[in-house]
Amino acid sequence: MPEKEAWTIRQKITGVLLRQARQDAGKTLKECGQVLGLSSSTLSAVEHGKRSISLPELEILAYYLEIPLDQLLNGSPRRTQTPLEELPGGELLTLRHRIVGALLRKARLNRDLTQADLAKRVGVSKSQLSQYELGEKPIPLVELEAMAATLDVPFTHFLNEGLGPVGEQQRLERERERFAELPPDVRAFVLEPSNLSYLNLAMSLSAVPADRLRNIAASLLDITL
């Protein structure tokens, strides 16, 4: 399938997921548009797959709609989300665009690619890529996904890591997901209050250098023998 056609399909899927999430939350196009500083018609174009949306914009909407970001990215089942305390301002969105651009530049340099190299491989102009890396222009989600694949970095490389309330919400969501992936007996052990002392001990030992741990283990063996 030609890349541009794949991008169009991806945009439409994202738009459908966004529209469903917005309607489930009882929010209007105008309300969601105001959060991003976009008009209702622009956001409507996103929902109909006629305009792409950037990762930072999607992060803000996920936070505003009180759903996990993965629900908008991949259509994951809706889960209970911690209610938001405050709505981030436009400054956070601008900062996230710059951070994503900086992460993109770093990943490109790590692969020893020039802007012209990456632009050609992804199918964008060099000037566009330059604007993306400087955070001067939002990177469409479909293009960011294509660049992540080209640079062989996971898409999670670009996700918000604890920046402001949006990042904190995403961090907590990822922690819940990782906890759910643990074996049932491990989860049960962690959730048992009486095991807190063992968990504190494990955390303390994890900070001890390996050579010191070996010395401690050797000393214990000497005592027991």
Question: Would you mind describing this structure in some detail?
Answer:
By secondary structure, this protein is mainly alpha-helical. 68% of the residues lie in helices and 0% in strands. The protein has a domain of 72 residues: 434 Repressor (Amino-terminal Domain), CATH 1.10.260.
Question: How do you describe this structure in short?
Answer:
The protein has 225 residues and is mostly helical.
Largest sheet: none
Order of helices and strands: HHHHHHHHHHHHH
The CATH first-level class of the domain at 3-74 comes to: Mainly Alpha
Low-confidence stretches: none
Structure annotation, total helices: 13
Residue-averaged pLDDT, rounded?
82
Helix content: 55-70%
User: Could you name the CATH homologous superfamily of the domain at 3-74?
Assistant: lambda repressor-like DNA-binding domains
| Total count of strands | 0
CATH topology of the domain at 3-74: 434 Repressor (Amino-terminal Domain)
**What CATH architecture label of the domain at 3-74 applies?**
Orthogonal Bundle
Intertermini distance: 68 Å
Task: Give the percentage of residues in beta strands.
Answer: under 5%
Overall shape: it is globular
Going by helix content, strand content and strand pairing, the class is mainly alpha
Radius of gyration: 22 Å
Topology at a glance:
Layout: H1 3-24, H2 29-36, H3 40-47, H4 55-64, H5 69-74, H6 90-110, H7 115-122, H8 126-133, H9 141-150, H10 164-180, H11 184-191, H12 196-206, H13 210-224
Helix pairs in contact: 2-3, 4-6, 7-8
